[in-house]
Design brief:
about 375 residues, alpha+beta, 60s Ribosomal Protein L30, Chain: A, 2 domains, four-stranded mixed beta sheet
């Protein structure tokens, strides 16, 4: 037999239910600021002339590099296990690199968006080198192609407000109905005999956002297709680096208390010194071995990426240079490595030439 509750308790429960419902409705309400971001292009972003955009879309994120390296999948992933998963095939290319994340209007399928891009590109002379959908992409494709915890896969542009930056890791978190294509276009005939001009590559990764684990961010993306468009154009790298000899190093230290080096090379997001840095390291060691002084080795980055990440990266790069000079016989106690990330720019970070000037290593006299 069900006992009748006292009237006061019934009223209390009714009030509780109303509060709970109101709370639920408030949580379900769309985030107006996030919706505004999803409907406007990112600062300084623009469509790549080779690709264009799906009608009604906006550019959520974009990075542009005058010259960089890009790895594009050319085969499915081999394993679902985190420790061993990889792409069975990939093509690594160099040149001008533009990576753009588009957000498309609600109610579209990933297939419709995907076909619009690939049809447009094939009409422009590109051919599909490899294509996949869902299971045919492999068991770990989503996690490898764009991952919330792997900064190397993410797209982070310039001058983003805090709320837009939050989408950097969230944009493919709820990805379903995955579609991917690698497209290639050969250049015209080379001028020299037996010379094959480099090809141009474009990667198209489209997925429907459904669910996701990032609260309001995932909710704002729900039922929208996001598209990662990666464009590589074969371009020659500008040879602007001057190797500073030991005399110039001494002159700049005496005049300014510091000297800037651009002839020390690292791969993107790494702190391992590349082999082509040896000529500059030779001159730095030559100077330090005949001049008994103490210096700071200071690493600098541009503003792309999160501040904490760049601070750590610049410190690791400065330490890598200090460690390299120890191999030449420079005493460890004479070099103190520090990283200041993007906190001491020489110029604005709103263009690739500006960012390149800000990425540097400096030798600074210790008083």
């Amino acid at each position: 037999m069900i006992k009748k509750l006292p009237a006061c308790l019934n009223l209390s429960m009714s009030a509780f239910i109303l509060v709970a419902l109101a709370s639920g409705l408030a949580q379900a309400a769309p985030n107006a600021q996030y919706n505004k971001i999803l409907s406007t292009d990112a600062p300084q972003a623009k469509d790549h002339p080779l690709v264009g955009r799906y009608e009604g879309s906006s550019i959520l994120l974009q990075t542009q590099k005058a010259f960089d390296e890009l790895s594009l999948p050319n085969g499915k992933t081999t394993d679902a296990d985190y420790s061993s998963k990889k792409f069975s095939k990939a093509v690594t290319v160099e040149g001008g690199i533009t990576r753009t994340v588009y957000v498309t209007p609600m109610g579209r399928s990933s297939l419709e968006i995907f076909r619009n891009f690939t049809n447009s590109l094939t009409a422009k002379g590109y051919s599909v080198a490899w294509e996949c959908a869902n299971e045919s992409c492999g068991p770990a494709f989503k996690g490898l192609k764009y991952n919330w915890s792997d900064k190397r896969t993410q797209v982070q542009g310039e001058g983003y407000e805090v709320d837009r930056s939050r989408f950097v890791s969230a944009v493919f978190d709820g990805a379903k109905d995955i579609r991917y294509a690698l497209l290639r276009k050969n250049a015209g005939s080379g001028a020299a005999v037996n010379t094959a001009p480099p090809a141009s590559y474009i990667g198209i990764y489209a997925a429907l956002n459904s669910g996701g684990t990032m609260g309001d961010l995932s909710d704002s993306l729900n039922d929208r297709v996001t598209v990662l468009v990666e464009v590589q154009e074969p371009k020659a790298m500008q040879q602007n680096i001057v190797i500073l000899d030991s005399d110039v190093i001494g002159r700049d230290l005496k005049a300014n208390g510091l000297v800037r080096f651009y002839g020390i090379y690292f791969d993107s997001d790494k702190a391992v010194i590349k082999a082509e840095s040896k000529p500059q390291l030779d001159e730095m060691a030559k100077y330090l071995k005949v001049n008994a002084l103490k210096v700071f080795m200071v690493g600098h980055t541009d503003t792309q990426g999160a501040l904490d990440y760049n601070m750590t990266l610049s410190s690791r790069r400065a330490q890598a240079v200090a460690d390299a000079l120890k191999i030449y016989g420079v005493a460890e106690a004479r070099i103190t490595a520090k990283g200041v990330g993007p906190l001491a720019p020489l110029t604005a970070n709103d263009s690739e030439p500006g960012r390149a000037k800000n990425r540097r290593v400096e030798m600074v006299l210790q008083n």
